[in-house]
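COURSE: Structural Biology Practicum
ASSIGNMENT: Worksheet 4, Part C
STUDENT ID: 0417
INSTRUCTIONS: Below are two proteins. For each, the amino acid sequence is given first, followed by its structure token string. Answer the questions at the end about the second protein only.

PROTEIN I
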Amino acid sequence: MLGKAQDKDGKKTTVVDLNPKVTSTNELYGVVLLATREWKDGLLSKTLRSLGQIPDSNPKWLILDGDLDANWIESMNSVMDDNKLLTLASNERIPLKAHMKMLFEIRDLKYATPATVSRAGILFISDSNGSQWKSYVTSWINKMKYDDERKKQLRELFDKYIAKTLFYCKKTFKHVIPQVDICMVVGICKLLENILATNDVKGPEFIFAFACIWCIGGGYQTKDGVPYKEQFSNWWKNEWKTIKFPSKGTVFDYYVDIENSKLDDWSKISNNDIVSTIDTSKSISSYTIPTVETISASFLMQQFININHCPILVGMPGTGKTQIIKGLLTDLCAKNPVYLQQIINFNFYTDANLLQMIME
């Protein structure tokens, strides 16, 4: 993934983000084909060479974001030492220039060899005390073009809700898949960013509570026979009483009517007569029937898509994740020609070459 940013001196920084675990070592660094004795470039070698060939001396960052293992990290030893050269099997040497930096964003050093550890400048960032997400929130609020009053309101709401909620949830509940604090906080910020940008919000605490409920509690389901989602809903109603939810149902059954600053049923969002729009010549899988679950999931994913933040649906098999996504993509493509969709089924044998053939 290629990105642009600016450093403190105002220079444009080129950022390329790669996951070294999505390809084999040969696809990452390149390989000499035994049949033809020809050199086939790899993803990393091609990217590093391209960054080095850019004529300016602006900062270039190559971020390798993926678990570390000896299969791919050992070939980095010559880059990480004083030589700063990537040596390929073709005998080509690609230099890591002075204005180029290589960052490894990894979970741990469990499989790192002493040679790798001795060459790495290690920075451990812990989110156990909340400093990580608090720094992100501070940066996000300062970056947003809100007035001083709105920024003050947001700071107070983050201080009021987040730390206590995250602490209790980590101690009591279990997500369908493990989540770190900053991931949930980033989701809250992105959801707030889109809603506040497109609406005249008079009751920010309504929106903030809505974002917290879905970005923190949306990943709970019944796990090991324990209904964590219902437990989270009950705890939220008892703990946070400023925004009062109806006693009927859970906190996930309601959305915020922004114009009137009140909670309302999800069913109020969809007023379309689905019967009149069904074409019987198409398969039933071509339609997504609006229910509380499909409406809420589609609404939230749409908010994230609007600001290019990637959502993910999690849940047990048969809960309709694929159908909800298909329905949203079909709706997006029908309403806006900017969107295109390509559905790819993954299995054990799906590799980079197969993906390339599908996309072509």
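PROTEIN II
(use this one for the questions)
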Amino acid sequence: MSLTSSQAPLWVRMVFGALAKLPASWLSALGVCLGYAFYYLDKRHRDITLRNLARIFPEKTKKERRHLAKQAFAQNGRTVMEVPLVFMRSKAYLLSRVQVEGEAILQEALAEGKGVFLMASHFSNWELMGLLPSMLGYETSTIYRPLNQKAFDVFTLAARSRFGTHMESRNKGLRWIFSALKQNHCMIVAVDQHMIEPHAVRVPFLGHIANTSPLPTAFVHKNQTPMIGMALERLNDSFDFKLHFWRIKKPETTGEKAHDEFAVMSAASSSFDDIIKTHPEQWLWMHQRWRVLETDNNMRDVVHGAP
């Protein structure tokens, strides 16, 4: 049964509805203030961010990395405060704030009739990015983790699926993916989140080894499902964006599981290097992306640039 936002508690709908009526510029300004406040108050995530930036940008000075960290927190604040707009405003309004680049690449991949893996990351406003394929008219499926707070889970699930995205709980298993791809769905998969072992494959992300989900590998090789990169770039620190699509070349199949998982997920992960390094303030640095290195001294020692 599909959920509607009316099933969420009244107070949740009233708060989000009121915020969604504010100008985007006001919410952006509030978000920047919120981000800066959390930079100074949230020592744990500030330290994670600075450690990650030191790993990826060892050539930058500590002052430069602190400045970049503040920018990243400000961007995260913007994204948080924009959630009411993303969850409550109309399709016409949201699409009016987004330019699309490379949509023909996605259409060509879907024309093969084998579904598409839309490889994504937590870059810029990822909540809006997750809605865009459905808003553009493509059948879309994605895996979600149910929230612990029931009221917000009901509301968030309704908001994320309001334009037709099929939200599938990670507790449901993965068999449904076969059916979704057979129906030529776009399957959104994040490549930038730490995956716990033994369910992970270790591949470079921004040049450093990280645990990554190998989920698309079997489908890419056995079903020849194409991989398309997707990123939503924020323009000029405003609620205006450019959605990028690009083709990720499928590596040659060897039939050896470990090799093929590494090859596929390395290709997917490395395809995000340019956009993240060009706009580093827009990526979610407060996540422990390289946790596997931080808990393995032998691996940490051999990675150039590790702090």
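ANSWER KEY EXCERPT:
Q1: The chain has a mean pLDDT of 92.
Q2: Residues 5-301 form one domain.
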